[in-house]
Design brief:
The protein has 224 residues and is mainly alpha-helical. Helices cover 62% and strands 6% of the residues. A three-stranded antiparallel β-sheet has the order 1-2-3. The longest helix has 24 residues, at 32-55. The two termini are 35 Å apart.
């Protein structure tokens, strides 16, 4: 089933043109123009991060970033208000592309659904590289508003929904605390990504993510 909606993206809000609804999941489908905008923003972010690493944050100018990215200064300010905002918004861009990645997924069972959600998140992070992921974590430590903890992030909402479905189906224990398990799984995934960054992109993040999330879920599965 699908319907059309018009929302605007601004500072963390998600913009989408079409919405697919399957088994209680609300999956946003980006238009080509929206997808291109996100990819351009991530391209600028990655190039800027490389420059920050090589020259130092304070020595990199917006013009340096624009020249390296082959964009105009106007294009830069269309996506960012300052250098500082570049890294601070990386998580929102990753979330939007992750949401797009899972738009065609067909539900199997709650446990596999959860594993799939985190595997796709791992692939999305791996796609931007461990350097940018590391820089994002560094920025989060000093950020006042830590977006990664936002319960309205797409991954929080979809994991919660999958856990609720699992309890209803009997896959998970009936007394499972949905919010607590959701937080535990997100925390575990964050740990896997951080470890992957420390090891400079090794080993395969998707495999590690599946292993770690599977261990957590095994304690909540109703195997009777």
């Amino acid at each position: 089933m699908e319907n059309r909606s018009v929302l605007q993206y601004s500072r963390g809000r998600i913009s989408f043109g079409r919405k697919h609804i399957e088994r209680g999941y609300c999956v946003e489908k980006l238009t080509p123009r929206q997808r291109q905008g996100i990819e351009t923003k991530l391209k600028i972010t990655k190039i800027a991060t490389d420059l920050f690493k090589n020259k130092g944050f304070s020595d990199v100018t917006i013009r340096d970033i624009c020249e390296e990215a082959s964009i105009s200064v106007g294009t830069f300010y269309h996506h960012f208000v300052s250098k500082d905002e570049i890294v601070n918004t990386a998580y929102t861009q990753i979330d939007m592309l992750w949401d797009e990645r899972i738009s065609d997924y067909r539900s199997k069972n709650s446990e596999e659904d959860i594993l799939f959600l985190f595997e796709e998140a791992a692939d999305q992070v791996a796609g931007i590289g461990w350097e940018l992921a590391s820089q994002s974590y560094q920025q989060l430590l000093s950020a006042k508003n830590k977006y990664t903890f936002n319960p309205e992030r797409p991954i929080y909402k979809k994991v919660r929904k999958a856990i609720e479905s699992g309890i209803q189906e009997g896959t998970f224990h009936a007394d499972t605390d949905v919010l607590d398990l959701t937080d535990t799984l997100i925390r575990t995934s964050r740990s896997a990504i951080f470890d992957w960054c420390l090891r400079e992109g090794e080993p395969d993040l998707r495999s590690c993510m599946r292993h770690d999330i599977s261990l957590i879920l095994s304690n909540f599965c109703d195997c009777r």
